Structures are given as C-alpha cells and as structure tokens.
C-alpha cells in the first residue's frame, strides 16, 4: 500500500494574488489535517493565521509564544515542505507571534483531509493475497520522498546500519532483525534510513507501515486518553505490519507512554510484525528506560551510526552537489568537509545555501564566495574552540606552564604568550572581553582589550611573529 503525498505543483502563481495564497493555505491545511488527524489538527493548527509573503519567505502568525514554539518544533519542517510544494519559490516559513491588528486565522474548520491516503493497491498485487490492511491516516506521518536508500550515501561509519535497514526493508520480521534498533548522534541519518525502509516497503506493496516520532506517539496516546479512545488507538497501532518509532529517547521519564509502547511492542512482535526504533544512544545507555523495555529493545539487531569521517563527508557532498546540477569545485567540497564536521544535516544545510546562492545570482561557486556566503555558519563552527584549548595549545607552543595563563607573572616570556592566547580567544570564540578576562586569572576586560591591540600591532610589525600566531590559529581551527 502507498502512503504518500502527491506533490502536485499547480501551475497558477499564487504570489500575485491573495486569493491564490488563501487557496494554497487551505490545501495545505487539508493535507496537514489528513496527516496529523482531526484532534491534533484542531488543537494546534487551526490557530495559525496567514501573514505576509515577502520574497521567498512567508510568515505565519500564532496567538502565543508557546503555540509558536510548539508549532515550530512539531510542524515547522512539514509546513515549509508543504508551502514549497504549493509555491516552489518559497524557501522559508517564518512563525511569529501575532500582534493586535494582525489577520485572524482563516476559517478552515471544515477543511477536508487530503492527500495522505491509503492508495488502493494495484490489481495484481492484491490477487490472491490478503486484503490491504486499512491504516488510519492519523497514524501515519507522511514519509519524506527525499529519504530513500538511493539517496543515502554509504561509508564506513554507516555501512552496518545501512545493511541492516536494507535487510529489514527486503524481508521484514526476519529472525535476528526484529526489532531493528538504530542509534547515533543527531543528524547522522537515522530518520533518513527509517523513511527509506518505509519507502521501500510501501513500494513493494501490501505492507502497512506506521512511522512516527516517539514524541508524536506520546502525544497521540495522551490525546487518546483524553478522548477516551485508547482502545481504538491500541487497535490501530496493533494492526500495522511495520511500526517505526523515531527518537525513542523522548519517552524517557514518560512512564505511562513507555508502558503503552511496551505493550504495543510486545503485541506486534508476538504477532510477527516488524518494529524499527531509533534513538540517540544504545539500549544499554538509555538510562531512564524501563528495564524490561530496554531488554526487549536489545533483543533484535542493534546498529549504530558513527560520526562521519572526512571521506564520507566528501562522498555525501559530491552526491548532493551532483544531484543539484550546480558545479561545485572539489576544493570547495574539501573545504566544507574539513570545516563542518558536526553532522550531515549541517553539512547539507551549508551546501544547500551555496547552491541556492549560485542559482539565485547565476555566479559560479568559488572558495571565496563560499567563505562569504557561509560566513555565519563557519564562524559558528569556529566557535567550538574553547578558551581552555587555546590556553593549552599556546602554552605548549611557547613552552610555558599552563598555570601561567592565569598567574600574576609579568615577565615578557610569559606575558606575551598570555596576550596571544587572549587575542586568539577573542578571535576564535564568541566570549566577551570580561568573560575572557575571568578565564585568565580574573583579569579585567581592559587588560584583554590591551592584549588584543598589542598582538594586532605586533603582527603588523613582525612577520615571523604574525606567522606564529597564524599557525596557532590554523591549528586551533582544524
Ligand atoms: P538523524 O535522524 O540521525 O538526526 P537525519 O536522518 O534527519 O538524521 O539526517 C539529517 C540530514 O542529513 C537529512 O537531510 C539526511 O538526508 C542527510 N543525511 C544523513 N546521512 C546521510 C547519508 N549517509 N547520505 C545522504 N544524506 C544523509
Ligand atoms: Mg531524526
């Protein structure tokens, strides 16, 4: 069976007229309603009012800060996607708290659910097989069509998890692979792999798949308790062939929800259905999970996704650049892979920004343009250097004791490296002058300011000294 969103990019240009905009919004609401279900839709999404559109950005307004934050965290990405599919030139959805006089929400109370449909199975796939099970659309978060096995770049850090995911997609519920527990840090591809499993199963037909984040699971469970429909909720969940729960760590400390998940889990596994779970840690490290749940989670296949390597980052960048059709020189890819080491999401974000920029201005991507366009991102990454690291490296380099960074000694051979360390702390971290001063034996911010000036002057006058300081900077940045 298919669960998906048909990306019908209609030909009209709603940018020109408000009516078109309102129609787009109604269609988006219809889709969202279909995806998240009636209760959730009414609780959160009917409160959104349409704000102004400006270039590639549209503003949506919410009555309170709490609602804005909640809608942003729960539906922000989806809203962006949906707006983008309505109006391809829209790149950003800005959520703001409404002020007096701002427009009120449209009357969308009876927007019909749309688009997330359990599409009828094709004739031949139903021939002689069991009927396609009904999956309530409110159990399903639409799978993101970009996240497939084809678009997942495999390398050392993720090859095992990838192989396990493929195996589950080919042969769900096989012995040894149920549950499949994927874990790893943020932005390393857990959600991508889960969606890929879902997409593959859906493509092969005849399998009902439910995918949701643990947070959503909890929310739906609580909503079911409130509306006294827990039995229905349980039945729905227990009717799927494959249940995927993303970011299980959110269930930590939520005892009732954990209990419910545990029972659902057991019922499904006992009935020979497949479970796929992701989390940021391994089952044994997820402290706060009930022991019996932890034990069961570790019973199938546990696969971790490791931090990316330089090689994998390069491969990912190459694949994404090629897919975008924009020529990105190897030097730029290397620069990015070198600078942005945290995770794939940030790497991808940086590359997307470069590509958007290149498309917008029709200029080739160069190293210089990259540094310029990604100025803020690169700076944020440079900020990861700590003052302690700077002090340590500088002390080693100039052969002084680390304690001298905060000592009162004023001999030149000690004072100069200390000034260099202060200078680098100012350049490479986002700390303020007083904060830096405190880390150097509670010195005054004017001392730090003086050190920065002094080192800058010296660098201008003394090329060898400047080279030394630059070397330190490069070492610390890499
Ligand atoms: P997680 O769920 O582990 O936090 P995601 O699956 O959301 O991470 O991945 C973050 C982003 O990085 C997504 O856009 C995803 O497509 C991309 N990504 C992660 N790993 C890979 C990979 N190996 N190949 C291609 N894209 C990847
Ligand atoms: Mg994720």
From TrEMBL:
UniProt feature coiled coil, ranges: none
CDD domains: AAA (cd00009), Bac_DnaA_C (cd06571)
A GO cellular component annotation in the UniProt record: plasma membrane
Principal location: cytoplasm
Presence of the UniProt keyword ATP-binding in the record: yes
Location of the region described as Domain IV, binds dsDNA in the Swiss-Prot/TrEMBL record: 359-478
Protein keywords: ATP-binding, Cytoplasm, DNA replication, DNA-binding, Lipid-binding, Nucleotide-binding
GO terms for biological process, alphabetical: DNA replication initiation; regulation of DNA replication
The keyword Thylakoid appears for this protein: no
InterPro entries the record matches: AAA+_ATPase, Chromosome_initiator_DnaA, Chromosome_initiator_DnaA-like, Chromosome_initiator_DnaA_CS, DnaA_C, DnaA_dom, DnaA_N_dom, DnaA_N_sf
Residue positions binding ATP: 187, 189-191
Residue ranges of the region described as Domain I, interacts with DnaA modulators: 1-110
Domain Chromosomal replication initiator DnaA C-terminal: start-end pairs: 386-455
GO MF terms, alphabetically ordered: ATP binding; DNA replication origin binding; lipid binding
Positions of region (Domain III, AAA+ region): 142-358
Annotated SUPFAM superfamilies: P-loop containing nucleoside triphosphate hydrolases, TrpR-like
Localization, UniProt: Cytoplasm
Domain AAA+ ATPase: 176-379
Membrane spanning residue stretches: none
PANTHER family: CHROMOSOMAL REPLICATION INITIATOR PROTEIN DNAA (PTHR30050)
Complexes and interactors: Oligomerizes as a right-handed, spiral filament on DNA at oriC.
Domain comment in the entry: Domain I is involved in oligomerization and binding regulators, domain II is flexibile and of varying length in different bacteria, domain III forms the AAA+ region, while domain IV binds dsDNA.
Function description: Plays an essential role in the initiation and regulation of chromosomal replication. ATP-DnaA binds to the origin of replication (oriC) to initiate formation of the DNA replication initiation complex once per cell cycle. Binds the DnaA box (a 9 base pair repeat at the origin) and separates the double-stranded (ds)DNA. Forms a right-handed helical filament on oriC DNA; dsDNA binds to the exterior of the filament while single-stranded (ss)DNA is stabiized in the filament's interior.
Family indicated by similarity: Belongs to the DnaA family.
Name listed for the protein in its UniProt record: Chromosomal replication initiator protein DnaA
Taxonomic lineage: Bacteria, Pseudomonadati, Pseudomonadota, Alphaproteobacteria, Acetobacterales
